[in-house]
Design a protein that fits this description.
seven-stranded antiparallel β-sheet; alpha+beta; 7 strands
Length: about 160
């Protein structure tokens, strides 16, 4: 089952500053609840895990994420990832595209488009809107954290 997720947010820092943050896995993982960076396979591929609760099931996905496209000139990134649930109840695949553009009045507008595919028992949670609700919650926490971390960097 594939789920399409479209989100946007704005931060008061310029695109180059936001770009450096959003393309640094060590910094990104700080803003993803339940996520942990395990190691770098190469300069664009990373191994990690993320724990989440999908309805009544808590699970940890372990896998890889890769920066397939990184265009700093136009601030465009495409990432793909895949992981396996630690209980063997499902797999997840994700493709995410992010584009940064200057926001009106300064700052940066971030547009994010994701396709998330779940297989196995976990896929049944997508039908009731659980996946979308979890995505909304995680995205809200992520954007708040990004704003906070960038504000700390601007003041420090």
């Amino acid at each position: 089952m594939a789920i399409e997720i479209e989100k946007t947010f704005e931060v008061p820092q310029p695109p180059d500053v936001v770009w450096r943050f959003l393309t640094d896995p060590a910094r990104i993982v700080q803003c993803l609840p339940g996520a942990k960076l395990i190691d770098a396979i190469d300069e664009r591929t990373f191994r990690g895990e993320i724990g989440m609760k999908l309805g009544p099931i808590g699970t940890v996905f372990k896998g890889t994420i890769r920066f397939d496209e990184l265009d700093a000139e136009v601030h465009h990134v495409v990432m793909t990832g895949e992981g396996k649930d630690d209980h063997g109840t499902g797999n997840v695949r994700m493709t995410m595209t992010s584009d940064l553009t200057p926001a009106e009045g300064g700052g940066t507008h971030v547009g994010v488009s994701q396709t998330v595919s779940l297989t196995g028992k976990l896929a049944s949670f997508g039908r009731g809107g659980v996946i979308q609700a979890v995505a909304d919650l995680v995205f809200g926490r992520f954007t708040s954290c990004v704003r906070d971390k960038l504000a700390e960097g601007a003041s420090g």
